Amino acid sequence: MKPVTLYDVAEYAGVSYQTVSRVVNQASHVSAKTREKVEAAMAELNYIPNRVAQQLAGKQSLLIGVATSSLALHAPSQIVAAIKSRADQLGASVVVSMVERSGVEACKAAVHNLLAQRVSGLIINYPLDDQDAIAVEAA
Question: Tell me: the pLDDT tens digits for 39-65?
Fold first, then answer.
């Protein structure tokens, strides 16, 4: 199924795609009536904003990276669930990179994977001694 676009929402709501964009980006210069009409169209069509496109356009969205040991383990999965829950409350997104092997190099690889996704912040949930933590931070 093809994803619903700004243009689809605009056509459905009878407004321009720029107006839909303004509503999605919470611009203040949209009338309440128009905002309601666009939001109703978005809900009706199950429109999901494309966060990657917004990032490419320079829009700031809070993306939190979590480097963690295996989510098959109870404690790490509970920690990531709590991070995700709080992020949802703040309107942020979470991306997870699991440290697949043991050791500081594996942790560095997970961190690099997250940094390549342009995360706004990073949480490392992986056991590191002070020296290894400094090495990961420097990487």
Answer: 999 999 888 877 666 655 656 678 899
